[in-house]
Amino acid sequence: MKSKYIYGLISCLFISFSSCDNMLDVELQGEYTNTTFYQTEEHAILAVNSTYELCAFVNTANNLWVFGDVASDDALKGGDAGDRSDITYINDFAVNPDNGEIESIWRHYYEGIVRANNVTSYVPDIDMDEELKQRIIAEAKFLRAYYYFHLSNIFGAIPLKTTTITSVEDLNIPVSSVETIYAQIEQDLTDASAALPVSYDSDDIGRATRGAALGLLAKVYLFQGEWQLALDNANAVEGLLIYDLMDVYSHNFNVLDKNNSESIFEIQHLEEQSPFLGSYLNQYFSPKPSGYSFNVPTQNYIDEFEITPVDSVYDPRLDYTVGRDGQDWVNGEPFDPTWSVTGYLQKKHVQPTSEVPIGDGNLNYTFMRYAEILLIQAEALNELNRGAEALIPLNEVRKRARECYLYDTELDGYTGTIPDQLLPDITNSNTSYLRTAIYHERRVELGFEFHRFYDLMRYGKNIAEQALSNTNFNYEDHRYFPIPQSEIDANSEI
């Protein structure tokens, strides 16, 4: 999603699809209609670029962090009590269908699906380079799968829309089961993985790749307990031979190392653009008064990190992820625990003010990293009763974490050696023990990357209710959030 194609064009693209009989049959001046668009190769590129736009955090509508983090045991809303107050109801699982936060993500991601459907429906008829055409269609299918993956994990059974909207009747679609939604996701990702390139040149960095499609497909199978298929697709990502762990964990979350060798699908942002193309997350998660101090880590999350028994050295991922008392904040000043209602702030999406003003941000959001592929391999192997093999990818993730002490000279306590007994390799291959170890590793490795709530839900009733015991959460009642009232009112089939 580099500026040449995606940034520079999607912000000025407005497509109007008008087919109702009561519309005046007049071509509008200054904007495309469904009869004048989807005619050229440039139109196809513009259309798929606009589909990527909904992934980015360039406005407040993309509130994925609310459902990935705040709804979980990792975070609280933070901020001022009255600011974005509907998030509090999500945090407490006291959500009504008219909650503004569920309305926001529903509308936002279904808009992404509508745009993807337009690409898959209209682009096949454009007279253009065939290889580029197939790639663009594959990108749209990947993005449709991405949006449906999130919506199905948040809402469960939802309307499945895979064709263009040409009439009011097309808006009235009954809900499909989660299994049906996942089947569509699997088909889209399978199609996409066959047509997408392994990599792009610099002008197209950020577009969906074969590795992104295979990686998300592995995750989709993991979520359904299809262990062999999850393993097969994770192995296929590894088999591309282009991904590797960064030496230093924190290099996944700074602007100097964007789109690195660990990144599998990364959402792009640019600062100082008009229209705005930066990341709102930088302001949301920065401390007050310039920021909002949203999405703050809980003590329960802090306590998840391992500490050496003798010298009390923490897993370095803690301070790469969290601002806490006694440590420096991203700008170099001492962290002030009064900045947050819990005494902590998360750092993965916050930039130093020396890079950008707090109201803007050019830090990307990485949806999937190679570290997660290794953890998918570990979990699938363990569930297939291949525990000894599962230890290998699991320990690879732990090895990178502890070896940050070998490579990061700015790490607090750096001596060029690994502290004694820090993050030792796991050696117990018992299935139950290893399952717990893998769940732990996912939490500390992927924390505040908007994955935790989905994980808790797929782990099942006992784990989910225990983790969320300080809220109103009941698995039968709150496994999924309610479909927004606006959709219920507008869609006569619900």
Decide which structural class fits the backbone: mainly alpha
Rounded radius of gyration (Å): 23 Å
What's the order of the H and E elements? Answer: HEEHHEHHHEEHHHEHEHHEEEHHHHHHHH
Strand content: 5-15%
Helical segment count: 20
CATH class of the domain at 1-70 and 89-196 and 460-494: Mainly Alpha
The helix fraction, in percent, is 40-55%
The CATH architecture of the domain at 1-70 and 89-196 and 460-494 comes to Alpha Horseshoe
How does this structure look, described?
The chain is mainly alpha-helical and 494 residues long. It has a domain at 1-70 and 89-196 and 460-494: Serine Threonine Protein Phosphatase 5, Tetratricopeptide repeat. 44% of the residues lie in helices and 6% in strands. The protein has 20 helices and 10 strands. It has helices spanning 3-10, 41-52, 64-70, 86-92, 100-122, 130-155, 178-195, 210-223, 227-239, 281-285, 299-303, 317-321, 370-383, 387-402, 404-407, 431-446, 452-459, 461-467, 475-478, 485-490; strands at 15-16, 32-33, 75-78, 158-159, 175-176, 263-267, 294-297, 322-323, 345-346, 365-369. It has a two-stranded parallel ribbon. Helix 13 runs antiparallel to helix 14 (387-402) and helix 14 runs parallel beside helix 16 (431-446). The protein is globular and about 70 Å long. The relative contact order is 0.13. Mean pLDDT is 93; it is low at 1-5 and 7-29.
